[in-house]
Amino acid sequence: SEALQAIRKENATARANEQLAREEQQKADSERQRAERELARSRRMLMTTRLVQAAAIGDRDPVAALRVLHDTDACPFNLRDFAWRLLAQRYRRELLSLPGPYEGCLTVSLGGDGLTLAFGGEGRKALLCDGRSGQERLLSPGPITAIAFRPGSGEVFTAEPKAIRVWDCSTGKELRSIATTASTLTFSADGKWLATTWNSQITVWDAISGRQLQTLAGHSQFVNGLAFSPDGKLLASAGEDRTVRVWEVQTGKSRAVFDQQPGPAFAVAWVDRGRQLAVSLGRSGRGPAVVRLLEADTGLERRALRDFVGEVWVLRASPDGRTLAGGTGGVQPNGQELPGKVLLWQVDGSEPPLILAGHQGGVQALAFSFRGERLAVASGGADRLAGGLSGGGVKLWQINPMCGRLAPDPDTDESGLVLLHSLPGGRFLEASNSRVARRDSKGTRLDALTLKTEHRKLLTVSPDRKSAVFTGTRFPQAGTIYLLDLASGQEKILLNQQTSAAVAAAYSPDSATLAVSHPQGVVRLFDRAGTVLRVIQANHGTPEGLAFSPDGKILATGGAMDRTQKGEIAFWEVTSGRRLGLGRGHPWRPSSLVFSPDG
Asked: Which of 161, 183, 312, 372 has the greatest number of C-beta atoms within 10 Å?
């Protein structure tokens, strides 16, 4: 019995020890869980702080904001929630980076689709590049000193040692040439005039025929920059002789001379709808470099921009004239080498400048897309004034993050924007850039048609829900108009002659007539078979708004008049293409139109 009691006592002691051990383990687990919760809370607080920091600096310096967001210590992958993705998408401005080195990257230009870049590559070759994939294609072996797309066309101009050569962007074939020597190429907004410089001489050409129109003499030293006014009637020039001159394009007469500038004039741009001139001036003695905003008529200074380091070599104004882009960096006259940056100023001074950094060497060239939502930047690693570059690169930036995106976000559906259209029986049609599907009233997908290729933009769906219209957005399909039969899935090419993507499309109420608008005011009308009925020249910029009257007899187009960006609406007779009327009064170009039920 004593042995039995001893065994029972030992068992009780063991059970007590086990219970104590379990309690200790539970206590330890509880402490560990509490510590993990505190750690998670601290990490979440740190990440929240980082998100607030990124939001505070993002609109001014998106590159720095992205650096904060992608810090894996402060923003670990498992905590990147909707708020993080929203900020990352908002400030993901850099769409493409071509590091090169491109020793000839003194120049860059953007095509009408905002996706095709032309620039000087290695050995000063002329290259074309798809802004989405980064795929390059040789255009000319060069060497080139300048390159530019002619607005409203598929032509690329290259300035080479003894001639200006004109190329077809889609085929790469040379179309014509102009026997002259030029260091810069500048087009008017409508693509009608071409201005070139060589030393102190300025020449104006007919961009289509190549005929020389005017020779403008007045600068005593090298001409650094040219800019056409928004209406194409005036040309401004900036020279090393510390003067800014304004010329009448048609007559070649000097309209104004703004001399006695404090330093050499490096660049010039028209802003505020042509009412002001932005001029970049270099250092003068001990005075710093400055960008001055001058009244175009009088030359009086309206505002001075000094919130940058170094000198601004190049200026470009956005198409609406509200944003001014300036490029800095590179080797300065004092021998100091500064990193390349682009500053984006709001002309009205309502916001601090947006900074785009990370460029190799100084910024040498800038180019806005047709709508102003993207900016191409060419940079190099040596002194521009010394006449050469040791290396350089090209970047494509999204200036306005709300203007769509070129690459799909990995956390979202790759199809992008989805449009819904009602169908008989309570069903509806789901149409996006890469897929068309039918769904029942509960949202269950019934069938789907996947498009043969990507990189398309949905323009419209016919009222009878039998066809959908797409435009190609990626070179070399940019501008191709596709008609998709929604019943059979068969696809037809309506037009393959444009190098700029179509902007808008609209069907007549009976689905018998399709209107498609292109840059530079061209509107084409197609019948059911896809035959072009007629071409309307709207003459008010790019018609972003299209609408048919309820009876289908009248087409309304909305755009900007005279390149001033003030809106106007034109009414056209569909059968003849004759303009019936014109309405003005919008402060900005209208992008959406709709008729009342009675027309």
From this structure: 312
Residue 143 in domain: no
Q: What is the pLDDT of residue 476?
A: 59
| 599 shares a domain with 516 | yes
Q: Are 281 and 244 in contact (CB under 8 A)?
A: no
pLDDT confidence bin for 414, thresholds 50/70/90:
very low
Q: What is the mean pLDDT of residues 204-214?
A: 92
pLDDT attached to residue 325: 93
Angle 564-569-573 (CA atoms, 0-180°, nearest 5)? 135
> For residue 434, what pLDDT is reported?
55
Cα 496–chain centre separation: 23
DSSP states along 17-72: HHHHHHHHHHHHHHHHHHHHHHHHHHHHHHHHHHHHHHHHHHTT-HHHHHHHHT-T
Q: Are residues 517 and 489 in the same domain?
A: no
Which of 67, 88, 109 terminates a domain? The answer is 88
The pLDDT of residue 386: 40
Radius of gyration of the chain (CA): 30
Residue 437 domain boundaries: 415-496
- Provide the residue count of the chain: 599
User: How does pLDDT run across 237-254, given as a tens digit for each residue?
Assistant: 999 999 999 999 999 999
517 and 487 fall within a common domain: no
Distance of CA 455 to the CA centre of its chain: 16
